[in-house]
Amino acid sequence: MENFWKWKNLEIAWQVEGQIQSSPIAIVLIHGFGASKEHWRFNQKVLSKLAPCYSLDLIGFGKSSQPISRLPYEKFTPNSFNYCFDEWSQQIVDFCTQIVQKPVILIGNSIGGVIALNASEKISTKCSKLILIDCAQRTMDDKRLYSQPLIMRFLRPVVKVIVRQRLITQVIFKNASNPTFIEKILKIAYPSKNNIDKELIDLLYKPSQRKGAQEAFRGFINLFDDHLAPNLLKSLSIPVHLICGENDPWEPIEEAKKWQSKFSCIKSLDIIMGAGHCPHDENPDKVNPILKKIIQEAM
Question: Which fold has domain 2-297?
């Protein structure tokens, strides 16, 4: 059943599967950019057999509030929101504290992985494990500019000026938020084409038609200086498990392998052969057993 929770005068949509009162832990699922709690459609019920399993819509996505975006240099207004990893992470922290009220295992996909990393530092002893599924590497962040081609480094200031403009981001968003374009992107994200169905297209398309959807888009594409996963992993003592699609078009698996060799908190790396950026949805039959094994080890 879908529920709503008031957070900072905003509405957060969430749902829970499983009511195992004796369970010492709970599971919290954090979706990626443009997705929603429904993106765990093949995972949440399966995992709820082990422990209560929660999913929620991040601010700006799904059925949660979509307030006006406020970039760091813009004037504060009561109905605006700074779409950034600290705010999304605080949403998760407060959700765990106020709604879940148990130690948690955080599972995040894409930017949900960075959010999970950041949130885990804030709730510390109340987070027993992290599972990052194709965690966002954020190659366009200013701190990674050195790794970009020279032309991209040269054009960065121009790009920043362009994407600040609402008129421009509205045009980009309008062109991208239609079922045909969404299906094309999904065929890149899901290279095996498994589970690209009307349900998946709709769960991405319908929230994009809400009044404030373009504001979350504007806020996100202006995140040029925010948290990077390696910086968060440096000081983390909580066990971290990585799951990656072999053919992720946006997050190279070589980078995840570097993280595994560099950071002692990373305990495992599972590669889902043939899968892309969202292996939990593209190939749940391979991912769910891995998730269940990691969760069972924490109980």
Answer: Rossmann fold (3.40.50)
